[in-house]
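Think of the structure tokens as a kind of shorthand, similar to the way a musician reads notation: each symbol stands for something richer, in this case the local conformation of the backbone. In the example below we present two proteins back to back. Begin with the first one, reading the sequence and then the tokens, and try to describe in your own words what changes along the chain.
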Amino acid sequence: MKITIFNLLNAINCSGIEMHSWGVAADVNTRQYLGSTESIDLIGKYLYSYVEFPHEIAPEYKVSNGADTIYIYALD
């Protein structure tokens, strides 16, 4: 496991965020899967979160669904 993925999972565990605030997806389009205004094809495995993690863990993408910012992190 890459250290960045470990740090991301550790941040989720330490922050105590609820299961409905994050998830994982593979090979999806952000508009279709997350309802975002942006249309980005996510090829591979990704973790998405409605909660921003510490700045040491930078998301690959930030998208919006109009009400929320969704932070997307690569797992591959």
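Once you have a description of the first chain, move to the second and do the same.
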Amino acid sequence: MNASEILRDARAVLDDTIQLRRRIHRQPEVGLSVPRTQAAVLEALAGLGLDVGTGQRTTSVIARLTGARPGPTILLRADMDALPMQEETGLPFASEVKGAMHACGHDAHTAMLVGAARLLAGRRDALAGSVLFMFQPGEEGYHGARVMLEEGLLDSGAPPTAAFALHVTHRLTPGAISARPGPAMASGDTIQITVRGRGGHASAPHDCLDPIPIACEIVQAFQTLVTRRVHVFDPAVVTIAKIEAGTTRNVIPDTANLLGTIRTVSEATRERVLEGVRRVAEGVASAHGAEVGVEVTRGYPVTVNDVGFAGFALDTARELIGPDAVHTAGYPTMASEDFSYVLQRVPGAIVNLSTRPADGAAFPNHSPRMLVNESALATGIAMHVAVALRFFAQGRGGG
């Protein structure tokens, strides 16, 4: 692997990558149906000599690059969907779609992977294996990766023996790379609770069964569950982010509704906490003579980076951009990611690329003011290319 050559070539396609990223950014799409983004990707991949297909249940794009010589297959993934939120960046290429914004960098992920596809296609004669490019909608809560797996992502052609993805972050110096071997990101489940009491006049709570203090007690009890029943080095986060009850100041309502999330970094703790929140909610409500309904919606599994492949990716980054710009994360993040479904089937890793602005405030992902340092996208393009080339050079058929 010639690091300087890869970086040079990545910078050569940076302008086109930025233009594609801005085109996608102007027209964000939410969920499993992203036809404009799909069309932009298909247009950008045209003429590269790839075997291209699209999804049926979702507007995904799958493209395979077959090298000149036989060898293993590596999967490279980018997500394409946006978030349902209003942009407040003031950028000249800001979202033109009311209530939708690329606030998590998926526009950059997609553009970088297209840039990498261009560079790898230009090296086809040197490739001993194939690259499966996975462009997926529906990462933001719609299980797009799972849908693509169910549609046969891994079933046509030589199955991949490794999988790699990049995600932008604001936490490091621009262009830096970080990853964590093992559990890297949390599971993400949704909990909805309805406390059923008995409403009446606010002046006579003794004639009622007020669900609001019961709901508040349940929220507090969840935090005790986490701190007293969950191992501190195998953590969980239970957050009730929405409480809804009542209509006015002088009426005790019949019901109170809670909505929140549960995040863990091991499947064992995930199951234990899911069972625990149901038990706690039912127990607290029963203690006050109220009824409660608890509904858990399972979200993404824990994202587990293969230890060997994560180390391989970090070593590749050190060779590409130097050891000072590469970091091994000491702990997982509690956000969730549906690349976890792929990593359940294929050993691989997701790593972070810092696109922190060089100047000014660095707003986090999912902020309406989130910005991407576009100069750092060259590093992302180069990382995709370098991981694939080094993968082939080492003949890593076992991941």
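Compare your description with these statements about the second chain. Residues 267-287 form the longest helix (21 residues).
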